[in-house]
Amino acid sequence: MVTLTAPHDHTPELTNAEVRRIRNDFPILGQRVNGHPLVYLDSGATSQNPTCVLEAEQEFYEQRNSAVHRGAHTLAVDATDAFEDARATVAAFIGATDRELVWTANATAGLNLLAYAFSNASVGDTGADARQFALGPGDEIVVTEMEHHANLIPWQELCRRTGATLRHIPILDDGTLDLDAAASIIGARTRILAFTHVSNVLGVINPVAELAALGHAAGAFVVLDACQSAPHLPLDVKALGVDFAAFSGHKMLGPTGIGALYGRAELLDALPPFLAGGSMITTVTLERAEYLPSPQRFEAGTQPISQAVALAAAARYLHETGMGRIHAWEAQLGQRLVAGLEAIDGIRVLGPAAGVERAGLAAFEVAGVHAHDVGQFLDAAGIAVRVGHHCAQPLHRRLGLSASTRASAYLYNTTDDVDAFLDAVAGVRGYFGVA
Amino acid sequence: MSALDSLYQQIILEQAKARHGATLTDDQAAAVHLPAGTGQCHQLNPVCGDEITLRLVVENADDGGTPASARVGELLWSGDGCSISMASASILAELAVGMTPEELAGLIEQFRVVMRSRGAVVGDEDVLGDAAALSGVAKFPARVKCAMLAWVAAEDALRQAV
């Protein structure tokens, strides 16, 4: 079984020269857009794929494509091995065991799976083991004001179905969570505490272990949205102490259509399934069925096999580059982004100020110019950023905005990319006649 | 002219600031019961948050039909959004007042044809007036919704009013 080789975190930190070599692994980054070299600063939305990931998917289809966990022929065995090797690799990448990693379409699907599993445990009799997940009136689910809709709406819906109450931890004016409020909101009624590791808008890195301890002290299940952390920093779900975590493959150099839900083995084995059907059962009669343990009990139907294999290639690529090095490089880019933006008239950066820890992204408001116009102006210069509410409407409302512009970096961005972006942003207000 | 300059023509940037007709009050926007001959529509572009509430008053349309003397008397709106959506609403407000309902419906259809053409159809200034300046938007499919927002609202409000 191929999982992960020794990490390279002992090697020197990333430099522009090293990043330029890394860029050669990403065919898409070499192109020109609207007459300018592409400056891709939208990895928070979706990341690009290195050649090894594209080749892994192609190699699977050319050499091993077959259904997994069924059939006795050679291709079926090869495909099953590749699929399960991929699971072990991605599990190891986040510090989990292979039994604790369920393939999902993406983080949204993982969080919905979880919410529906809680829902199923709350209706009818799903067995003694599942009773711990049952919710009802009087129970509370706690989220935060900075959540992506993917880690908000599934819990709203779970509350609607079960009669539980949704509460939220507010943010402070600097964009960080109000931890004093958290300590009073999380209490005996809290059954689920769900929060993001890294805000996709603010760039804030939340104190996961501290929050998880608060949740566990209250007897709650702790759910982490790791969408913006798994791709960008060394993630160890065991060390953080969370019960569940979800992330997406396409944000970490992998293909779309694949992601994963981590859960502690004893919890996943007790949790009722969400989707039911083939490949997740032991014995089936016309009246009822018994289910396999995790992870198969959550993987009904044919899975995105080649995507899982390609995601494992992405995890290996990231691991070999070194997640510590990637995180440190992106932290530098994040600081350069914020410091540069703060120096431009009429720009308000959302979240922590320059000099304060943040991930390699920055969302901002341009006084007098709507985010959509900012994005269009930057696109004409070959610069790809995200505009809109970034699936975080409540957070934008809290900040007094309906939309913002976001630049988000990854391991393939140089400081030249950041500088080209800053140069272009400096011209926005003049172009639209508001400077 | 660069593609960007054809999108953001001076007239569009000026109209986005002028916001002609953007005088709908919060009370009016929240109204549940509308007088006869009045239609109102709220439109939201969930992708970017552009939002508009548009009220249209048709005069002489209160006899149950659409008499030849029916005219758009007022087009008021309130909203928040990008320069394309705001300019488009401002231009529409200027164009629509004084038109018969049929003329306005025809104008909206003409505008839609241009917007959906991906740049193949350039708006005729004689027909579309200042809205012809929005022709460049059609080459940016992601922005067509911005330009159409007020027009879709007006189409619905007109249907209610007559």
Instruction: Name the helicity range of chain B.
Output: 40-55%
Question: In DSSP terms, counting alpha (H) and pi (I) runs of 4 or more, how many helices of chain A?
Answer: 15
Strand order of the largest sheet of chain B: 1-2-3
First and last CA, distance of chain B = 42 Å
Helix content of chain A: 25-40%
The CATH topology label of the largest domain in chain A is Aspartate Aminotransferase, domain 2
Number of helices of chain B: 7
* Unreliable stretches covering 5 or more consecutive residues of chain B: none
Number of domains of chain A: 2
Summing up helix and strand content along with how strands pair, one would put the structural category of chain B as alpha+beta
The domain tally of chain B reads 1
Specify the CATH homologous superfamily of the largest domain in chain A: Type I PLP-dependent aspartate aminotransferase-like (Major domain)
Secondary structure tally: strands of chain A: 17
The name of the CATH architecture of the largest domain in chain A is: 3-Layer(aba) Sandwich
As a percent range, the share of strand residues of chain B is: 15-25%
Compute the CA-based radius of gyration of chain A. Answer: 22 Å
| Quaternary class | heterodimer
CATH class of chain B: Alpha Beta
Shape annotation of chain A: globular
Keywords:
heterodimer, A: 435 residues, alpha/beta, Aspartate Aminotransferase, domain 1, Aspartate Aminotransferase, domain 2, 2 domains, seven-stranded mixed β-sheet, four-stranded antiparallel β-sheet, globular, B: 162 residues, alpha+beta, Sufe protein. Chain: A, three-stranded antiparallel β-sheet, 7 helices
SSE topology:
The complex is a heterodimer of chains A (435) and B (162).
Chain A: H1 16-23, E1 32-33, E2 36-37, E3 39-40, H2 51-63, H3 74-93, E4 101-104, H4 107-121, E5 140-144, H5 153-162, E6 165-169, H6 179-185, E7 190-196, H7 208-217, E8 221-225, H8 237-240, E9 244-248, E10 259-263, H9 265-270, E11 281-284, E12 289-291, H10 305-321, H11 323-342, E13 347-349, E14 361-366, H12 371-380, E15 383-384, E16 386-388, H13 393-398, E17 404-408, H14 415-426, H15 428-431
Parallel strand pairs in A: 3-15, 5-6, 5-7, 7-8, 8-9
Antiparallel strand pairs in A: 1-2, 4-10, 9-10, 11-12, 13-14, 14-17, 16-17
Chain B: H1 3-7, H2 10-18, H3 26-29, E1 38-45, E2 50-59, E3 71-80, H4 83-96, H5 101-115, H6 125-128, H7 144-161
Antiparallel strand pairs in B: 1-2, 2-3
Helix pairs in contact in B: 2-4, 4-7, 5-7
